[in-house]
Amino acid sequence: MAIASTYSRLSDRFLPQSARANDDSRSAFIAEAKALDVALKEMVAKASKVIDDSGGDGVIKERLAIAFACSEELQSRIQGLLSTIVELRERATELKGGSGLSGFSKGVLYASRNEAILSEMKEKMASAVEMFKLRGQLSIETILGDIIRSTYDIRQALKEAAEQEVINTISRAPAGYRSVDELKSQFMAGSREELFEEAIPWSAGRFPQRGRKPFYFLSGGAGLGKSSIAHRLCTCLDQPDRPALGASFFFVRGGGDLELTRLFFSTLAHQFALSQPQLRGYIVEAAREFYKRGDRQQMRYTFEELLRDPLRSAEPPERMPIIIVVDGLDECKERDLVRDMLRYLLELVRSLSWVQVFATSRPEPQVMSILTSAAVADIVYHRSLNDTLEKWNDDVRNYLEQTVPRIPSVATFVRQHPSALARLVKRAGGVFIFARIAVNFLDTYQDRPEEQFRLLMSSGGAGVSPLDALYLQVLRSAFPPDELQFAPLRHQRLLALLQYFALSPEDCTLGTIALLLGLLEEDVVMMIDRLRSIFLTNSTGTVIPLHATFREFLLDFRRCTDTLYLVDKAKGSAMLATACSSAFSFRSVTDYLRTHPRSEEIALHAYIFYARSHWDMFLKDAEVTEETKMVVQGMIEAMPVYMRVSKRSGGSEVTSIRDWLKNGGLNTRAIAKICSDFMQAAAYSHAWWDSLQRRPRAAPEVSPYQVERHVSKFVKSEAPEIRRVDTSKDYAAHRKLEKRIQDAGVAELWSRYDSRDRNFTPSISITC
Description:
Helix content: 55-70%
Protein name: AAA-16 domain-containing protein
Radius of gyration: 40 Å
Largest sheet: 5 strands, parallel
Oligomer: single chain
InterPro entries: NPHP3-like_N, P-loop_NTPase
Distance between the termini: 80 Å
Shape: extended
Number of strands: 11
Keywords: Repeat
Number of helices: 37
Strand content: 5-15%
Pfam families: NPHP3_N (PF24883)
C-alpha cells in the first residue's frame, strides 16, 4: 500500500504548479496511480481470502501469509514497481513550471513538452500496473495458488510423518501373510480351484446363492492346506490397484506372540492403517487416545477403541469390501480367549457391512462352538475341507505326478512301476502335507526307491493315520531301531533332539539347539540332515518341523507306537529344565557378555535368552524327583550370575516352583522351605545388582529387611513362622563372584551397560 501512496503523491511533490495546465494528462496519470492502488488492495483481499479458505489453523495461516509476502515472484514485482518510482521521480524533475508569473509563463512556454513527459509517465505507470498484475501471464492468483499448493504439500508431508510416528507405536506381531514361513506360503498353481471360484467372488461381496455371509470359515484336519489357501487368498486380495486386504494374522503354534491373542487386534489396526489410506486418520486419532492408558490393555478395550470404533467413524469405502484373513485359530494356545476374540470379530462384521472375515482352523471345540452355532448361522458360511478329500484328490495327484518323476533315481522306478505312484496318491488321501513329506522322503533316500515306496505304503498299525505312519517311517528309516538299541548314546542324543522339538515353545537355529542340548553342532546337523524330509530350515537358519502335527505325534503314545521315538512330557521337560539351568555358568555368561548379538556367536546369545525365559516353564511340567529338585538348588547357587542377565526379579519363577512342587505332592513346609531359599537368593541378588547400578563406585549394599520383605510376600501363607532371614550365605556368594570377576580380568565386561540385559547404566564398575 505504501507503493500506491507514493504514486498518488507524485503529482503534489514533483509536478510543477504550471504543469497542471495539462489537466487531462495529469488526470490520466493519477488514474493509473489509483488503478495501482486498487490492484494492491485486491491482491491483499485475495491473499486474505485464500489464506482464510486454506483450512489450516492459526499457525498454518500465519505461515501462508509469510510465504506469500516472501514469495520470490512477488518480491520481484515489488522491486520492479520501486524501480519505476525512482525513474518517474527523475522524469518529473524535467517538467517546467513553478509558482508566480514566471512559473506560469514557463508552463505555457513548455506546455507541449510537459504534455509529452506526462503522457510518457502515464504510459509507464500503466505498464507498471499491468506488469505487476500479470507479468509473463502469471497472475497474482497463480502465485497464491502455487504458494498454497507448496504449503499444502509440506503440511501434508508433516501430517503423514506425524501419523506414521503414531502408527509405529501401535503394538503388533509379525503375523501378516508376508511374514509367514515358506511352509504356510507354498501353494500349487491350479489346485483348490473350486474353492477359489467361491472365495474370490465372496471377497468382492458376491455370494447370492446363500445370501450375504460376511464371515467365511474354512475348517479341516491337519495337512489339508488351509494355511496355503489363506496365504494365496491374501496375495490375490493385496493388489496395488485394489487393496481389498485390510489385514491378516497367521497364528503359529510355538511362535511366541504368534500363538497369543494379546496383539491380535492391535496388529489388525496397525495393518489397516497401512493398507487403507482412507482409514489411517481415524486409526491414528484412536491410537493417540488409546495409548494414553498404557500399551497393555484387555482385549475388549483394544478391539473397541483401536479397531471397531475408528472403523465405525470412517465413511464406508466405495470399492469392494475390505477383508481380514485369520489363519490357524487352532494354533492359538489361549483357548478361552480365542472364543472372546471370535465373538469380537463377529460383532465387527455385524456392525460394519463393508468388513468381511476369512478364517481357517482345525475343527477344534473352542472354535467350532462359536462359528458353527445357530446364533451366527446368518452371517457365517462354513466350508469343511474334510468333506472334499475325495473330490479334491486330483490336486494331490497332480502334485505327486509332477514332482515324484523329477527325482532322478525314482523316475526310472515309477516308469517301470506306474501302479506305485497310483498307490501313493491313494495313500495320501487328499492330504497335502502327507504328499509333501512323502516327496521329501523319496528325495532323501534315493538309493532304494522300491524299498522306500514299500515303507510309504505301510500302515503303521490299526487306528494309525497315514500321516502318523509316515512320521514313524521317516524316523525308522533315518534311525533304524536296531541301530538305536545297540548304540544307547546315539539314542540318547536323538531322544534329546525329539524332546526339544516336541516341547520347545519356540524354534531355534542349529547352533542354539546344540548349546541347549549340550551336543556338538555337527551331531545336530547330522541328525537334522537325516530327518530333513520332515524339517525345514528357513532363511534365518531356524529349524522348523514341516507341520505342527509332528510335535503332537511325538507326545502321543497312541500315534507314535514305537517307544524308541516317543517323548515323555515329564521326562523331556526335566531334561530341558536342566539344560536351561546349565546356561548360567560363569564361563557361559562371560562369553555372552563378551560377544556382540550380531556377531557369529549369535547362537550363544539366543541360548542365554532361551534359557532365562523358559527354564521354570519346563520345570513346571517336569516330574518332581530328587534330580529335578537339584535344578532349583543349582539355580539358587547360580543366582548371582543368573540375575546379571535376567530381567526377572524372582517372583514369577518362585510361583512356577511352588506350583510344580504342589503337583509333586510335597507337604507345605517342604514347599515353603524350597521357595523361601530360592526367593531369598533371588531378592538378594536382584537388590545387589540394583545397588551396584545406583552407586557404581561403591560396594553394593543390600538390606536384610528388603530381602525379608520379598521372601515373606511369596511364602508367608505356607509358612507364617518365616520372619527373619540370614543373608550371610548370599553375601558370601556375591563376594565370591566379585573375586572371580576380578581374577579373570573381566570386571569392565560384567559392568558394562547392555540393552540386552537388565536396566544397567553405562558407568557401572565392580569393585571389591
